[in-house]
Amino acid sequence: MPQDRGDTRQRLLDATVAALRARGTPGLTSREIAGIAGVNLQAITYHFGSKDALVAEALTGLVRDRIAPIRAALETKGELPDRLFNALETITQVFNAARPDLVAYASVVEASSTNPTLAQALENLHAELADYLATLITDLQRDGLIQDWVQPHAMAALLIAIGDGVAMHSHYGEPDVEGVLGQVAMLLLSAGVGESASPPPSMGGVSSSVMRSEQRIAGGASL
User: Fold this and answer.
1) pTM above the 0.85 mark?
2) How do residues 45-61 score in pLDDT, each as one tens digit?
3) Residue 162 in contact with residue 175, Cβ under 8 Å?
4) Is 44 helix (H, G, I), strand (E, B) or coil?
5) What domains can be seen in the chain, in order of their start residue?
C-alpha cells in the first residue's frame, strides 16, 4: 500500500529533528534522514526541494512548538509581574526539558554562517519572534505597564539575543538558565511603571534568582 504523502512529509520532518538532536548538522546527509524516516531518498526533493530546506522547516517547526507554551503564559490575564514570572518559569521548564533541542538549534545557527537557506530560515524566525515580542511590549506600554523609554523592537531584539546566547552556550557547556532569566526579569520589571515589583513566592528558581539579585543590589547600595 503506497504511503500517504502527508505522512511521508511529516516522517521526514520528524526524522530530521531526531537527527539534529542526536548529532547536529555536521555531516548530516539526505540518505541518513531518509533512512531514519524509512522513505525513499527522492522523497526529500519531492516534498522539500532540498535537504537544507527540509532542515530549515524542521527547525522552524521545532522552535514554534517550544515557544507555544511560553506565548500562552505571556498572554494569560493577570498582573504583569505574575504573567512575567509565569512565562519565565515556563521558559526554564522548556530549557530543562529540551536540552537536545537547544543543541540542535545551536548547531543550525552555527551552520547558517555558510548556508544561505538556513540563514534565511533563522532570519524569518527571528523576525516573527521580534514582531510578536514588540507587539506585546507595545500593548503593555499602551496599558501603562511598561515605561515609554523602552523601544519595543530594540527590547525584542535584546530578548532574542539573550535566548540565542543561552542556546549557543548549551552547545558546549551548561548555561545558568535560572540566573540569566532572573536577570531578564529584573530588567523587564525595572522598565515597569510604578513601584518596584517583587516576584511571587511560588515562582521557584527564577524567583529565587531575582531575590538574590535584589539582595546584591541592596548590599552594594549600602556600601
Assistant:
1) no
2) 999 999 999 999 999 99
3) no
4) helix
5) 66-221 (1.10.357.10)
